[in-house]
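ok posting inputs for the 6-O-phosphono-beta-D-fructofuranose job
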Amino acid sequence: MARIKFDYTNVKNFVNDHELAQMQTMVNTVDRDLREGTGVGSEMTGWIKLPTDYDQAEFARIQAAAKKIQSDSKVLVVIGIGGSYLGSRAAIDFLHEFYNNHLPDDQREFPQVLFAGNSISPAYINDLIKVIGDRDFSVNVISKSGTTTEPAIAFRIFKNLLERKYGQEGAKS
Ligand SMILES: O=P(O)(O)OC[C@H]1O[C@](O)(CO)[C@@H](O)[C@@H]1O
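and the output
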């Protein structure tokens, strides 16, 4: 795995060597706790092994779904609130140029990604539906519990729109 290098050369004008050495002890302890799962809250650190230890079959299913959406949709509506949508938003933000989402369809390599389900504003949903227009769209619902009110409302609205546009069976694929 590629290693991340921390270049603190410029910090040396402000922080003395002995201060950095003191911090090293703390860094070593935290590093060991994270790697060995011995620290407080270690049950929440499964993400550390994600780059190498993950469900490969599930990953393949996600990649196949992404390819299908890229081939048949101009818009992907990501429904979720809080941590359940900010992960995808962060990944999209760091992988794309800033205004990628605002480019015309023929200048974007991937579908426009729009977000829903993070409020109960009917105006927001109406505006979003207007932006989608008559373009083909897909929906990705992200919810750990499946019971959160805001995404549950958005899911019902977009499920209805998908069924009206593609029929009950077509809406599922
Ligand atoms: O993923 P769920 O179950 O819809 O829950 C969403 C909630 O979970 C959190 O992501 C974390 O508690 C909140 O920010 C958000 O309101």
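notes: The chain has two domains: 12-49, 56-170. Residues 81-84, 143-145, 148, 151 surround 6-O-phosphono-beta-D-fructofuranose (CB under 6 Å).
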